[in-house]
Design goal:
By secondary structure, the protein is an alpha+beta fold. It contains 17 helices and 35 strands. The longest helix has 12 residues, at 117-128.
Length: 710
């Protein structure tokens, strides 16, 4: 097929035909426009000109590249001119294919979806995959919705364990939406009630999805506006278990196009309006071509659905999804991704399916969620509640305002990646919970450095790799949570540190249920990276552990986890945490410009004599009148940490590591984690996170206080 093509065309075709995971590099450099014009072959110059909408003879481009993506092995072409990215990127490019199941792209109808295709996808998944097996969501509490829509009889019916249903994930936007209420619930149970004038405000997306469920061969349908009674006392409980509702759905229909609920599911002939998809075929020789596909909004369309906090958990927990996106439909399950025009995607990873806690997974999910948008910022913890409920099956004690109980002292050490801003409620009144100590109280990207803060418990895991870590962090105070400054307090029972001390390198302690200990006969034969990724780096370990649920994984100690038959802990939404701790004062110093993560404000901390004491990471830049002024900062200690001073620079992720003033003469660099706080009446609020060198902190005048953090 490619023998008659020129060298450039051959490179393009080979790159396009190679699966993403098999490519040595995901970027193919085609050279400059001048270099392309010097070749005799006109096919690839025509390809570049058409994809970038430029005349190469008149526009001098320094670099033209094809970028490969894992998403269905798609490609994009882009060009650079000087240091500036050329903004006219191509559409989605795929190698043309004649086979409906081969690697590559196909031409599709520009206006209408093949209505038999979604049903064929479903039947193929049923026959070949395990996505619908009970084990695929064994970690989720089996919570069924109270109501579902009977799409045959157009009414609400009670949901039972024998009622399979299709769910809808969509964006409400500003569309007026008819909802189920206590006053109309009885009426909505009459056959035909959802087709009458009384319910004419059911938006197009919901109407279309109800009928699309029938195209899939499904009778029952779930959507939040109709299946959760919006003014019922059980509404909040239903919202808190929405993760489980989507996990139990046989399929989730995702309306990812549009910014409101009235856009509809376009492209369903006889049901909705036509879609707008355009494809261009670029020939690269006999029987060789690239197909360029454009959605309704051009080359690189966005999706409001993908940016929303509420829809994040819906997509996260759905086992199988049919996504209406960019004018086309896509099937996504845990074993395959199939598009109308290109079937070659990697399967979607399954999260929270392992019974042994996965810290990396926890951090990544929280980060992804907190980067999403919420129409009402005060809904942050409510929108996270479904995820928190699932985590309660994995992390012993569940979560308190989004932070895992079992390692609470670690969760409090989250840092901003760049600047963050406080979430401010938009509603005039309500029962809001946006604590300053939780990531949920702030908008932006946060980061809990798992490798840096949690001394590793993973020796080898079948799904996650952990890098070398040299930091050790120890709890310092006992925390309790409360919902009023002077109200009843419940102790936060941290157990991770206790479990580590009880089992790491302990060869005689009885193992917890489900765990087996393995002796290491000759520790010196272990790879150096394994020795470094255990609770005491550079110490030869004596044993490791395996859990019956993960026979291929090995752990340095058994982390705390709920029992198999133990009910999951509900997400605790708490406004305040309290403890008894020590308080001290230091002076704000100069800004630190050299940063591991540029873009966030970091200051040195100094004592009254001007000596360097530590560093402070801020969430927001100081006001102009405060910049450059030495301010006395009130600090409270919350944890203690240390790193051996002979640790490798490239594996240490603390900002002050290379500062000249940081003490380096002792065997360990030891420090206290502190919070900069500001008081409002009897409640303190977090403004920044710092590390203060141990000797510098203990040389200050410290006093014990009862801290209430809001």
């Amino acid at each position: 097929m490619i023998l008659k093509a020129c060298d450039v065309c051959q490179k393009i075709l080979r790159f396009s035909a190679t699966p993403h995971e098999d490519r040595e590099t995901n970027t193919l450099d085609l050279g400059s426009s001048a270099q392309l014009l010097r070749t005799e072959c006109k096919r690839h110059t025509k390809l570049v000109s058409q994809c970038l909408h430029v005349d190469l003879r008149r526009c001098e481009l320094d670099s033209i590249k094809l970028q490969g993506y894992a998403d269905n092995n798609s490609l994009h072409m882009y060009a650079r001119k000087g240091r500036r990215l050329f903004l006219r990127e191509s559409g989605v490019l795929h190698l043309a294919s004649q086979s409906p199941l081969a690697l590559g792209a196909r031409l599709i109808n520009a206006k209408w979806i093949d209505r038999s295709l979604p049903r064929r996808w479903k039947e193929k998944c049923n026959a070949e995959h395990t996505c619908t097996s009970p084990e695929s969501r064994a970690y989720m509490a089996r919570h069924l919705p109270l109501w579902v829509v009977d799409t045959w009889n157009q009414c609400l019916v009670p949901c039972s364990t024998s009622t399979p249903y299709v769910a809808l994930s969509y964006v409400w936007g500003g569309t007026p939406i008819f909802t189920a209420l206590k006053d109309n619930l009885e009426y909505l149970q009459f056959p035909g009630s959802l087709a009458g004038d009384h319910t004419k405000n059911i938006p197009k997306t919901i109407r279309d999805a109800m009928f699309f469920a029938q195209i899939l061969g499904e009778r029952y349908f779930w959507v939040d506006s109709l299946c959760i009674v919006q003014d019922d006392a059980q509404m909040m409980a239903e919202i808190a278990t929405m993760g489980a509702i989507y996990a139990q759905a046989s399929i989730t229909i995702v309306a990812a196009d549009g910014d409101n609920a009235d856009v509809g599911l376009r492209g369903l002939h006889g049901l909705s309006g036509p879609r707008s998809v355009r494809q261009v075929v670029h020939s690269l020789g006999r029987d060789a071509a690239l197909i360029e596909t454009f959605g309704p909004r051009g080359r690189r369309p966005g999706s409001v659905w993908a940016t929303r906090g509420w829809t994040f958990q819906e997509g996260l927990f759905s086992r199988r999804k049919i996504i209406f996106t960019h004018g086309v439909i896509r099937w996504v399950c845990h074993e395959a991704i199939w598009d109308e025009y290109a079937d070659a995607g990697d399967p979607e990873p399954i999260i929270f399916t392992q019974f042994v806690p996965n810290l990396e997974e926890l951090v990544n999910v929280v980060r992804d969620f907190n980067s999403k948008k919420l129409t009402f910022p005060e809904d942050a913890l409510l929108a996270f509640s479904g995820i928190a409920s699932a985590l309660g099956n994995v992390f012993q004690g569940g979560l308190v305002s989004g932070i895992a109980v079992t390692l609470f002292h670690i969760g409090l050490l989250w840092e901003p990646i760049s600047t963050m801003s406080r979430r401010v409620p938009k509603r005039a009144a309500g029962d809001f919970c946006l604590p300053s100590w939780s990531w949920a109280g702030w908008e932006g990207d946060e980061w809990v450095p798992v490798r840096g803060h949690v001394v590793n418990y993973v020796k080898r895991r079948n799904r996650s790799g952990y890098g070398t870590n040299f930091e050790q962090v120890f709890p310092l105070v006992d925390w309790s949570w409360a919902n009023a400054p002077q109200g009843p307090r419940t102790r936060i029972q941290e157990s991770w540190h206790i479990r580590r001390e009880a089992f790491w390198d302990k060869i005689h302690t009885s193992c917890p249920p489900g765990w087996t200990r393995y002796r290491i006969e000759d520790p010196s034969t272990l790879p150096s990276w394994q020795i470094a990724t255990q609770p005491q780096p550079d110490v030869l370990p004596l044993c490791f552990y395996k859990h019956e649920s993960e026979p291929d994984s090995e752990f340095w100690f058994p982390p705390p986890m709920p029992g198999r038959n133990e009910p999951p802990t509900a997400h605790i939404v708490a406004r305040y945490i309290t403890c008894r701790t020590r308080r001290g004062w230091l002076i704000s110093g100069e800004a630190i410009s050299v940063s591991i993560r540029p873009g966030r404000p970091i200051l040195s901390l100094r004592d009254r004599q001007g000596n360097w004491a530590g560093l402070l990471i801020l969430w927001e830049f100081m006001d102009r009148e405060e910049q450059g002024i030495k301010i006395e900062l009130e600090l409270v200690e919350i944890a203690q940490g240390r790193i051996a001073n002979n640790a490798s620079d490239r594996n240490v992720e603390i900002e002050e590591w290379r500062l000249d003033e940081r003490p380096k003469t002792e065997a360990f660099y030891e420090y206290f984690y502190v919070l900069w706080i500001e008081w409002k009446e009897d409640v303190a609020y977090k403004k920044g996170l710092g590390r203060v060198h141990k000797n510098a902190w203990e040389s200050q005048t410290l006093e014990w206080i009862d801290l209430v953090l809001g």
